[in-house]
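Example record

One chain of 113 residues, shown exactly as stored in the release files.
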Amino acid sequence: MRCQQLAGRIETMQPTAAPRDVARLCLLLANRVGSLDELESDESLCRAWRDMAIRLQGATDQHEAMTEELEELTKTSAEDFRPEQVSILIRAIKVQSQILQMYVGPSRVNAEP
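Predicted structure tokens for this chain:
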């Protein structure tokens, strides 16, 4: 299957979806499976779609919560940081990393020098 075919199937299932939403879904689904051919059947596409929707909602909720914490953190001077505030920054980085992984796929780090 090619991305155009996947986009067509998504548009059939969600006729009111905006083009950017269709493109986003194609990207998220393509990064979720090893091969687009895994999405050939309606059942496998729906299952992958539901799984991605759950993961995306969870990441969105985490991102929203972290944004609130970071906004509160910006009211503090860097010189006055406490250890728990540093842990907020570390959690924020992890949340951003999870969201980025959804959009760019699993990282393939080359261990060779």
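Notes: The helical segments are 3-13, 19-32, 42-73, 83-104.
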